[in-house]
Amino acid sequence: MIFNQKHIIKVFSNTGILVKHDPFANATKQVNDACDILGVTDKGIREYLSMPNKVLRVKIPVKMDDGKIRIFTGFRSQHNNDRGPYKGGIRYFNPEGGVEYMEREVMALSSWMTWKCAIVDIPLGGGKGGIYVNPKTEKISDDELERLTRGFAFKINEIIGPGKDIPAPDVYTTGKEMTQIMDTFNKLNGNISTPGVITGKPISMGGSLARNVATGLGAAYTVREAAKALKLNLKGATVVLQGFGNASTYAGIYLEKMGAKVIGVSDSKGSISIPKGAKTEDIISYKEKTGSVVGYPGSKKISTEELLTSKCDVLVPGALENQIDAKIAENLKCKIIAEAANGPTLPEADPIIYKKNILVIPDILANSGGVCISYLEWVQNNMGYYWSFEEVAEKMEKNITQGFKDAYALSKKHKVDMRKATMVLAVERVLEAFNQKGIWP
Ligand code: NAD
């Protein structure tokens, strides 16, 4: 079935307010838009590119600490593996729309992983999964969580593996859960050592150097390329970071190394402008001491809207989705937007931003440094030979800069914004692999 507007699921909260549209319908629309530009009219091919190859939904019984049995629901969506094994995170989360909504969400996220891997030209496909549970808000002990994680690994054992599907951490999962999944997989498969079954592992378990900085560093590389395209000198360029976590702080640190200056930041407690600029490392030290960026010496507290519409060269939305709506888009005063966060811009804002000649580096490219280094972790695991930080970073730089250049060239060729251009690039690459292989049986 080709999904279109008619198939959008509306998820209502218990107050009856519409909270979300179907993310999978959104992902499908993006594929269809790219097919329109590429002139792919065959409905079967469009459906092939949109729908996941497989969605596994599992029941995971867990013996809780009080002796009672609790049943959890888990998913693994395998979207496309024409270019290589499925790759994508496992999240522990309980979205507002319940388990049905979560299924649609992992389907959409697995589709985006297919395109993300294709843009940076790594030989992997798209997958995503998770368990409907929130370890942050529910009372669940470490032992219960381990039994749940190992139970989930048992249920997905047959469909994962270094040549099949390689999960990674995502929302509320860490290297600890990845190690437990790897260990369960190894035990279930004759006690083999298979570090390449999963990425995002701690270094001592076969993880890769540079993974911690990957997303921010990758975003900085894409900004550097965007600046070159716009003939904007990054020396002295001004940067605003929304969010002050892993993705945005490393973006700030590496943009500073390229000569830029951070003049505004925010976290969950508020936003600040720092007219004279400040070193990201200094703001990190301040936040470590006080718990927030708010109050940083020489700064002024501002609203989220003021932060996003600050006059600057580079805006890095690096915290949450749905931040830039049509109203904010009208008032933007930056030259480049690097979407370190997933989905920070609403679709209604895209044409406005394009008209204003602001260059958007869309999330599936700007934050793909993470998956690039996950790929390199898998390569190192498969070789049994490990690279230095510099070697890993250099390899990632090559993929991500080429991805930017290829997408930018397509945006000029088809006269479309970078969001559409990256999708066109990705769909074209997957289609090429599909056409090489054909359908069997
Ligand atoms: P994080 O938890 O390290 O940081 C999130 C930051 O956002 C925190 O500083 C928090 O204070 C801030 N924040 C929360 N609510 C806010 C609000 N209302 N206004 C402003 N700031 C707010 O998370 P992260 O890993 O940096 O991820 C951030 C985004 O980047 C997410 O969308 C994530 O999906 C995306 N991303 C991250 C990675 C990665 O490797 N870390 C990879 C791909 C995409």
Low-pLDDT segments, ≥5 res: none
Mean pLDDT: 95
Largest sheet entry: 7 strands, mixed
Task: Identify the overall geometry.
Answer: globular
| Total of helices | 15
Order of helices and strands: EEHHEEEHEHEHHEHEEHEHEHEHEHHHH
Ligand types: nicotinamide-adenine-dinucleotide
Query: Beta fraction of the residues?
Result: 15-25%
Separation of the first and last Cα atoms: 21 Å
Helix content: 40-55%
Give me the side-by-side strand order of the main sheet: 11-10-9-8-12-13-14
- Radius of gyration, whole Å: 21 Å
Structural class: alpha/beta
Strand segment tally: 14
Properties at a glance:
5-stranded mixed beta sheet, 19% strand, globular, alpha/beta, 14 strands, 441 residues, binds nicotinamide-adenine-dinucleotide, 15 helices, 7-stranded mixed beta sheet, single chain
Explain how this protein is built:
The chain is 45% helix and 19% strand. The protein has 15 helices and 14 strands. The relative contact order is 0.12. The mean pLDDT is 95. The site of nicotinamide-adenine-dinucleotide (NAD) has 19 residues, from α7 and β9.
